[in-house]
Amino acid sequence: MKRRKFVKGALSFSALAAATPLLAHDELIPNYQLPEDHLPREIRLKTVLEPFEIHIDPGQFALFWTLPKKKALRYTVGIGRPGLYEAGEFHVGAKREWPYWTPTPAMIKREPDRYAQFANGVPGGLKNPLGARALYLFQPGRGDTYLRIHGTNDPSTLARRVSNGCARLVNDQVIDLYDRVPMETRVVLHPIA
Q1: What's the whole-number mean pLDDT along residues 38-61?
Q2: Domains of the chain, with CATH numbers?
Q3: Catalytic residue list contains 166
Q4: pLDDT at position 5, please?
């Protein structure tokens, strides 16, 4: 099956087990009370994908960390608002723990009342919009795309189109994903169907 057809149902899955938490909890991170369907779980894919890649299916608000034998870890994510979600192929070009955040000039121009106050940046920490960890998405010939897969301290933003293009997970889940994903990992943000 061609990867282009991937979004048209290939990301459907069957749960391998009940929603058993896959995470160890960091005492510095709030313990978010998430609905059971927002907990990460190991699933079986209905198509073969290369293991150890990230695939984001915007229709399911799902991030898949692919594993051998048609398995994957599925995380619930928030994605880019209409007009800001960017489908494409990327790779992890940088990783940061408790990343520093500065809004892009485009963000400040779009929403100056919201972002201009942060033009000089926000140090890493629980109040930083990038949360506990960030994977920086790059493309050949373009470099840093300013798209991230990052944490959030606001679980109400999961399973919604809320960001400026990034995908977000709650902090304990992004720590789990971050620890699994090496540099140069292939990342596919699939088109919105």
Answers
A1: 96
A2: 3-189 (2.40.440.10)
A3: yes
A4: 43
